[in-house]
Automatic annotation (TrEMBL):
<dbReference type="GO" id="GO:0046872">
    <property type="term" value="F:metal ion binding"/>
</dbReference>
<dbReference type="InterPro" id="IPR007837">
    <property type="entry name" value="DinB"/>
</dbReference>
<dbReference type="Pfam" id="PF05163">
    <property type="entry name" value="DinB"/>
</dbReference>
<feature type="binding site">
    <location>
        <position position="138"/>
    </location>
    <ligand>
        <name>a divalent metal cation</name>
    </ligand>
</feature>
<comment type="similarity">
    <text>Belongs to the DinB family.</text>
</comment>
<keyword id="KW-0479">Metal-binding</keyword>
<dbReference type="InterPro" id="IPR034660">
    <property type="entry name" value="DinB/YfiT-like"/>
</dbReference>
<protein>
    <submittedName>
        <fullName>Putative damage-inducible protein DinB</fullName>
    </submittedName>
</protein>
<feature type="binding site">
    <location>
        <position position="51"/>
    </location>
    <ligand>
        <name>a divalent metal cation</name>
    </ligand>
</feature>
Length: 177
């Protein structure tokens, strides 16, 4: 049986993998095309990627009992490369933090203040599900915008991640024989 902890460790590792898939596709765009990416809510790809990072950092802080440090922040990085690197690093750091949490943490609730400064209480699995689906949602938006500008369509589905990880483990076993 899979525990909540193991489930969310798979999920955050998947987030890192899927971000890399997206970034590899977006790296096919030239600077002009990259700067033309935007949608109704974010005028640039950089803005949306910043939103992804802000969301991750705010929820991570809330899960630690810290007031969300970037609750009113919309942009942490003004450079696409710095943004990608920060999102990669913070996603991995969040994964390592989750790994250190006891199993019980994943069955508890947290109390935090939302961006309107109202106190809320939510179950940790609900919060983590929100974070993971929010990141996937915005990654999908970025992929759609990038493909309209000519980037290849990245394969970012969870099942593709699981297959790639299974293949990797199989190759490791074959090397040990």
């Amino acid at each position: 049986m899979i525990t909540w902890k193991k489930h969310f460790l798979y999920q955050i590792d998947y987030q890192h993998w899927a971000n890399d898939q997206l970034f590899a596709a977006m790296d096919q765009l030239d600077e002009r095309a990259l700067n033309q990416l935007g949608n109704l809510y974010y005028d640039t790809a950089l803005g949306m990627a910043n939103h992804m990072l802000v969301t991750l950092l705010n929820w991570w802080a809330r899960m630690q009992g810290i007031v969300a440090p970037h609750a009113q922040t919309t942009q942490l990085h003004a450079d696409w490369r710095a943004m990608k690197q920060a999102l990669r690093q913070e996603t991995r750091a969040f994964q390592h933090w989750l790994e250190k949490q006891p199993e019980q943490f994943f069955e508890d609730s947290i109390t935090y203040h939302n961006t309107a400064n109202h106190q809320q209480t939510s179950w940790v699995p609900d919060v983590l599900t929100h974070v993971m689906t929010n990141l996937a949602h915005h990654r999908g938006q970025l992929a759609a915008m990038a493909t309209r500008q000519g980037a290849p369509l990245p394969e970012m589905e969870f099942i593709a991640y699981r297959r790639e990880m299974a293949d990797h483990l199989m190759r490791l076993k074959e090397q040990q024989v």
